[in-house]
Write a structure and sequence with these properties.
35% of the residues lie in helices and 17% in strands. By secondary structure, it is of the alpha/beta class. Among the domains are: 7-88, no CATH class; 170-276 and 292-322, P-loop containing nucleotide triphosphate hydrolases (Rossmann fold); 328-403, Helicase, Ruva Protein, domain 3 (Orthogonal Bundle), CATH 1.10.8. The strands form four sheets. It has a five-stranded mixed β-sheet. The protein has a five-stranded parallel β-sheet with strand order 10-11-14-9-15, covered by helices on one side. The chain has a three-stranded antiparallel β-sheet with strand order 3-4-5. Helix 9 packs across helix 11. The longest helix has 17 residues, at 177-193.
Length: 434
């Protein structure tokens, strides 16, 4: 199978087609570079086989309601379901085909009610989106219960989880040179072989930059990132809704993956390895299974506690990275960069002090830079200096070692006892939960 279009080639095709959909002439952020002859059917990744479609027309193509013939950019034919053809004679010509209205529903292929006996053995994500109202998850039985009825119309402009317009790139990430280089090699190898990168697992403390790395992966691949926190995926129906909205090449980022419920984690095994999901469906005492074909997406997951992940799930992430501890030099540079984004210069001494009290955590550092910025603004100071940082730390009860009141209290108790204290007892003395 041919490799996906590179970011550079995508930009070239977008510029060639005037940054507008070739089927309906619409402009916008949802434009996609589409293979006229699909890669799965032997289509090459060449300019002649690539064209630009908006999200709505792209959905119509994959629903079989709009077909594309010919070669780009001067000999394309768009054929709608009813058979009328719209021919593009030149790349600059605007189609007379009526654009789909915002939120307009795609025509339904059939109004025949779905019954248990008519369930297909294999379906795609579009089928699930149309029929999910008729399939209710039953946690006690561990199946989807079927309610017979007519499938919903699927809106062409279905909800999308778009990544932020400005995503980080690998070269912008500080303090993780080894991890970044390892990820670069993995992405380049996948590009050369024309496949998706293997599932990636990032392990590190909270606030250590795992989300930033995941979004950088999406940025390097030139695709959108879909972020989800594992505790939100409470049951298999929630997982189904999530993965059914993915498209080929999307980067699914699962944060705190160790918090996935066991039943959801077990379903994810198959999704990661086979890009399919086996759905158990029941009606009364009758039961069957259907196979859901998923898009060829990329998975990046993050965890602060890999030991809580089921071993089969962890083993499916064949590319695993443990984030390095951030040094003070990298954190000082990050402090200066953050202050620059906040339009408030930071002195070298202030940057060093902030890096020292951040305890190796970028998220903590950024919060402290913002606090120091607030002090500088309130005191009408043109820059953030050491005195400003000390004032900001004092306001939050943090000393120049980065210790908060609770930390100092715990150290005082340990010093007073002169010997180790059990974790539960220390928590009780501090009035904290274990």
């Amino acid at each position: 199978m041919a490799p996906p279009a590179s970011p550079a080639l995508r930009r070239k095709i977008l510029a060639r087609d005037g940054h507008r959909c070739r089927a309906c002439s619409m402009k916008g952020a949802s434009l996609q570079v589409h293979h006229i002859r699909w890669r799965s059917k032997g289509g090459p990744t060449t300019p002649e086989n690539l064209t630009v479609l908006c999200g709505r027309c792209h959905a119509l193509v994959h629903e079989g309601l709009l077909t594309i013939k010919g070669t780009a950019p001067h000999a394309l034919i768009f054929q709608r379901q009813e058979g009328k053809e719209d021919v593009i004679a030149d790349a600059a010509v605007t189609l007379v085909m009526d654009p789909p209205r915002r939120g307009a529903a795609a025509p339904r292929k059939s109004a025949v009610p779905m019954t248990f006996d008519s369930l297909p053995q294999e379906v795609d994500a579009a089928w699930w989106r149309r029929h999910q109202r008729l399939l209710k998850w039953n946690d006690r039985r561990g199946v989807f219960l079927l309610e017979e009825g007519v499938a919903d119309d699927e809106t062409v402009a279905r909800p999308r989880h778009e990544a932020p317009p400005t995503q980080p790139r690998f070269e912008e990430i500080l303090g993780q040179d080894r991890v970044v280089e390892s990820l670069k090699i993995a992405l380049e190898a996948a590009r050369i072989e024309g496949r998706r990168p293997d599932p990636i697992l990032l392990t590190g403390p909270a606030g250590g930059g795992k989300t930033t790395l995941a979004r950088a992966v999406a940025s390097e691949l030139g695709r959108r990132a879909v972020d989800v926190s594992a505790p939100v995926v409470e049951h298999p129906a929630a997982l189904m809704t999530l993965v059914a909205g993915l498209e080929d090449g999307d980067v699914l980022f699962i944060d705190e993956i160790h918090a996935l419920p066991q039943r959801v984690a077990e379903m994810l095994y198959e999704a990661l390895q086979e890009k399919t999901l086996t759905l158990p469906i029941a009606q009364g005492s009758r039961m069957t299974t259907i196979t859901l074909r998923l898009a060829d997406f990329v998975t990046v997951a993050a965890t602060t506690d890999p030991d809580r992940m089921p071993r089969p799930l962890r083993d499916r992430f064949t590319h695993q990275e443990v984030l390095d501890v951030y040094g003070e030099d990298a954190l000082a540079v990050l402090a200066e960069r953050t202050a620059g984004c906040l339009k408030r210069p930071l002195t070298e001494g202030a940057a060093r002090l902030l890096a020292r009290v951040a305890h190796g955590t970028p998220r903590r550092l950024i919060a402290m830079v913002r606090c120091a910025r607030d002090v500088a603004v309130a005191r009408s100071r043109p820059e953030i200096d050491v005195a400003t940082v000390r004032e900001a730390l004092y306001a939050r009860g943090i000393d120049e070692r980065g210790l908060e009141p609770g930390h100092r209290h715990a150290l005082a108790l340990l010093r007073r006892h002169g010997r180790p204290i059990g974790r539960r007892r220390l928590a009780a003395l501090l009035g904290m939960s274990v």
